[in-house]
Specification:
It is built from 17 helices and 13 strands. By secondary structure, it is of the alpha/beta class. It has a domain of 178 residues: ATPase, nucleotide binding domain (Nucleotidyltransferase, domain 5). The strands form 3 sheets. The protein has a 6-stranded mixed β-sheet with strand order 1-11-10-9-12-13, sandwiched between helices. Strands 4-3-2-5-8 form a 5-stranded mixed β-sheet. β9 and β10 form a beta hairpin. α1 packs parallel to α13, α10 packs antiparallel against α13 and α11 crosses α13. The longest helix is centred in the N-terminal third of the chain and has 48 residues. The chain is globular and about 80 Å long.
């Protein structure tokens, strides 16, 4: 009898344990389903807020066009600066001779020499030297930086073979790509408005950067003339026009973004000088600062902007450029981790670090075609120290990348469409075989294939089938460097 009671008791205890275990399993499954449902809900909400249907893209393009008109009408009339570049004479392809370029736009600068052989030979024998700028020169004095650049330029030229030396009495001519905000005062002069990209040389602000360079060139005894001061976007436009006379605009889509285009001089009310003989003027839009109520901003974009070094500025750039796309994706993943315990019970510490997820890494995950998304798994492990992710989780990560990239690419296409609309190139061309070409440069466009495909598709969608045949995008080749040398040629004092 006692034994029977023991057996019965044991059975009851076992049954209770089984029930408890089963209950725990059920609760775990329910909790897991709840987490997964929350993760999917956050993704869906993000996707809806980032939607860019054709109607919204047309609204963005129209707003871009309106701001372009306002910026051309008066200084400060628009968020778009619409800077007059004083480039009124773009390369024709006929230019000949040896010309130089100095490309300063970040922590490295490049010295370039090209030989232009006219329409028959084009660009031959380009020589390029890239030099890192020591950090102390980025925050020191103006003369220290420009002396360093001039000394490098002198060494580059002194190593030239004798046959490249100009004839007596003729100066070497240089195109100076200076990719910082400058208020241009002529084709070969401009005052620095402010430094960006880690530079902070206070005594250079408000000074003519060409004059500063000339002082340093004189110190090293280099007889060289700056024929053209440009930024990288205008260099891209010039390089594109050298090869193709149908190029009407240029766009940079890299770490940052900008656009420039050819405008009728008579359509620039704020231009008070003599009308150029060409009747045209290249406009540097500084379109990264564009903003509109039609832009599909989310809380992630707002938090990124608030945490940035320039809150309230460069809103368009923060939506479409390589500097920011990866961090938008990180912020979305962080929220999923916090609210849905997506990567475990604790939020991975690395996921909280701004800009730890770079756009090239986002691109690699987005382009992962392996059946098990191995690239995604490796990136999460190596960059964010997140291991043991399931295939379902990796698919969510790819989904976030796709939403961010697609929105950015389609908005960039809307901006390009706005430019074409402003200059009347958004419709079917009346003149047979006439084309409007946009030269596009930058690592984001060149290497992020999904981004490029989305951009090109959206632009065709905006233009319509017939107009798309006469409006095309062409990838540019090193416009910021070689294009500057070409502008030195087209503005040569000897031509």
């Amino acid at each position: 009898m006692v034994m029977r009671k023991v057996v019965v008791g044991t059975a009851i205890a076992c049954a209770a344990a089984v029930c408890a275990t089963a209950a725990l399993v059920v609760r775990h499954r329910m909790k897991s389903r709840g987490k997964w449902a929350r993760a999917l809900a956050i993704l869906k909400e993000f996707e809806e807020k980032c939607e860019t249907p054709i109607g919204k893209l047309r609204q963005v393009a129209d707003a871009m066009t309106v701001e372009m008109h306002a910026g051309l009408a008066s200084e400060g009339g628009s968020k778009l600066k619409m800077l007059i570049s004083y480039v009124d004479n773009l390369p024709t392809g006929d230019e000949k001779g040896h010309f130089y370029a100095l490309d300063l736009g970040g922590t490295n600068f490049r010295v370039i020499r090209v030989h232009l052989g006219g329409k028959d030979k084009g660009v031959t024998n380009p020589d390029v030297e890239e030099v890192s700028i020591p950090h102390h020169l980025m925050v020191g004095s103006s003369h220290e930086l420009f002396d360093f650049i001039a000394e490098t330029l002198a060494k580059f030229i002194h190593s030239e073979p004798e046959e490249l030396h100009p004839p007596p009495g003729r100066q070497r001519e240089l195109g100076f790509t200076f990719s910082f905000p400058v208020r241009q005062t002529s084709i070969a002069s401009g005052t620095l408005i402010k430094w960006t990209k880690g530079f902070n040389i206070e005594d250079a602000v408000g000074e003519d950067v060409v004059e500063e360079l000339n002082k340093s060139l004189e110190k090293v005894g280099l007889d060289m003339r700056v024929s053209a001061l440009v930024n990288d976007t205008i260099g891209t436009l010039a390089g594109g026009r050298y090869y193709n006379q149908d190029v009407v605009a240029a766009v940079i889509l890299g770490t940052g973004t900008n656009a420039a285009y050819v405008e009728r001089a008579q359509a620039i009310p704020k231009w008070h000088g003599l009308l150029p003989k060409s009747g045209e003027m290249v406009i540097n839009m500084e379109w990264g600062n564009f903003r509109s109520l039609h832009l599909p901003l989310t809380e992630y974009d707002q938090s990124l902007d608030a945490d940035s070094l320039n809150p309230g500025e460069q809103i368009f750039e923060k939506l479409i450029s390589g500097m920011y796309l990866g961090d938008i994706a990180r912020r979305v993943l962080l929220r999923i981790a916090e609210e849905a315990e997506f990567f475990g019970d604790t939020v991975p510490p690395k996921l909280k670090i701004p800009f730890i997820l770079r756009t090239p890494d986002m691109s690699a995950m987005h382009h992962d075609t392996s059946s098990d998304l191995k690239v995604v798994a490796n990136k999460l492990r190596d960059i964010l120290e997140i291991s043991n992710t399931s295939l379902k989780m990796r698919k969510i990560v790819v989904g976030v990348c796709d939403i961010v990239a697609t929105r950015g690419a389609r908005l960039a296409a809307a901006g390009i469409f706005g430019i074409l609309k402003k200059i009347g190139r958004d419709t079917v061309r009346v003149v047979e075989k006439e084309k409007s070409v946009v030269a596009l440069d930058g690592a984001l466009f060149e290497h992020y294939i999904e981004f490029r495909t989305s951009l090109e598709g959206a632009l065709k969608e905006l233009l319509g089938e017939d107009a798309a045949k006469s409006n095309v995008i062409e990838q540019a080749n090193d416009g910021s460097g070689i294009g500057a040398a070409m502008l030195a040629a087209s503005h040569s004092q000897y031509l």
